[in-house]
Amino acid sequence: MTDQPYPPARILGIETSCDETAAAVVEDGRVVLSNVVASQAEMHAKYGGVFPEVASRQHIRTIYSVIDEALSEAHLSLDDLDAIAVTRGPGLPGSLVVGVNAAKGLALGSGKPLIAIHHLEGHLYSPWILDHGDSLEDKEEPSFPLLALLVSGGHTELILMKDHLSYERLGGTLDDAAGEAFDKVARLLGLGYPGGPKIQQAAKEGDPAAFKFPRAWLEDTWDFSFSGLKTAVLHQVRKLRAELGEDENDEGVVLPVADLAASFQMAVVDVLVTKSRYAAQEFRAKELLVAGGVSANQLLREMIVQDTPGKVHIPPLYLCTDNASMIAAAGYHRFVRGQRSSLDFDALPTWPLDELV
Ligand code: KG4
Ligand code: ZN
Q1: Whose alpha carbon is nearest atom 2 of ligand 1?
Q2: What gap in Å lies between CA 321 and CA 344, rounded to an integer?
Q3: Where does ligand 1 bind, in terms of residues with CB under 6 Å?
Q4: Which of 126, 157, 266, 294 to mutate to test the pocket of ligand 1 (most atoms within 8 A of CB)?
Q5: What is the pLDDT of residue 1?
Q6: Does residue 139 belong to any structural domain of this protein?
Q7: CATH number assigned to the domain comprising residue 108
Q8: Number of domains present in the structure of the chain
Q9: Predicted TM-score (pTM) above 0.85
Q10: Is residue 299 included in any domain, yes or no?
């Protein structure tokens, strides 16, 4: 016997906005029944970033087997689902359309409701989801008002959430996103793609105070800028190479890569943590939420918890980078409010979060 008055709502999530083909089944926006992610990272590594044509072709190849796997791991069929949620945008046009069309086909064939989801809304709902082995009692839901720091490969945003599905954008990056800066600096240091995990790994052996890299505080705004920092790392690398007599094309053989990575990582995290903490105070947010690929960063996870007096909600590590559980979780909150999408919507490669209703 369960003391819940209704059976749980089971949503199939589908995500193909970038280079991950993902499908998942999540109960009540919190309990993962399956989470399948087919990453293309290795295919794109040789290009040093995502190659859009390769990404869409690969999504077409894998989407149906990824969905089948998600259903079979959850021991469910399409009939057992309550709805299908899919990423509508923002993202790469040729990638988004593969997930959107697959979701439409499944919704049409099964008669299940379809819900279009904003990719960033998905990230924002990832901290509601339980980690492996956690039970609902172990993990409290975030409560409002909360200040969200969304840090991914394409976005760095501070968002005030006063309630479910309500987003007030306070500020964001004026140039590079935090994840993008990690990726570009990793390339510069010859560490490869995706840059975030590689920088984090290299930084373990380094001194975060070895180089004094600039922090763009952009006072009196809630905006960020990381391009100056990236350029400062570039200049430092050139200076070191000149001193060491190294060629531009040498892949950092004798460069102090660990110190450079650690100092860069500290500069990014310092700004993210400090500005989030001030914004939470200013807008009287009770709690803080961090999401997006960069929320996997260990230093960010540690420093934001240390420096914040209130509760901090961070997704489980396996749900920081792109996945479909977060799309299903966001879909759940729209589903229970009676929201449904018609079958004739198009993918939206560009879609500001403020325009979401
Ligand atoms: O959210 P996500 O998977 O994709 C987008 O929606 O953009 O974020 C990917 C980004 C990449 O830039 C990647 O380098 C970064 O997240 N990332 C990290 C870490 N893991 C992934 N950045 C810093 N530290 C990490 N451990
Ligand atoms: Zn993402």
Answers
A1: 293
A2: 29
A3: 18, 152-154, 179-180, 182-183, 194-197, 200, 292-294, 296-297, 321-322
A4: 294
A5: 44
A6: no
A7: 3.30.420.40
A8: 2
A9: yes
A10: yes
104 and 167 both lie in a single domain: no
The answer on 41 and 105 residing in a single domain is yes
116 part of a folded domain? yes
Q: How far is the CA of 153 from the centre of ligand 2 (A)?
A: 7
Q: pLDDT tens-digit profile of 24-79?
A: 999 999 999 999 999 888 887 777 778 888 889 999 999 999 999 999 999 999 99
pLDDT of 160 above 90: yes
Mean pLDDT of 79-95: 97
In this structure, the answer to whether residues 54 and 178 fall within a common structural domain is no
140, part of any domain: no
Task: Kindly state whether residues 240 and 329 are assigned to the same domain.
Answer: no
Tokens of 216: 């763009």
- For residue 344, give the nearest of 119, 120, 114 by alpha carbon: 114
| Tokens of residue 124, six digits | 């924002």
Residue-wise pLDDT tens digits, 108-156: 999 999 999 999 999 999 999 999 989 998 888 999 999 999 999 999 9
Domain containing 120: what range? 10-132+318-355
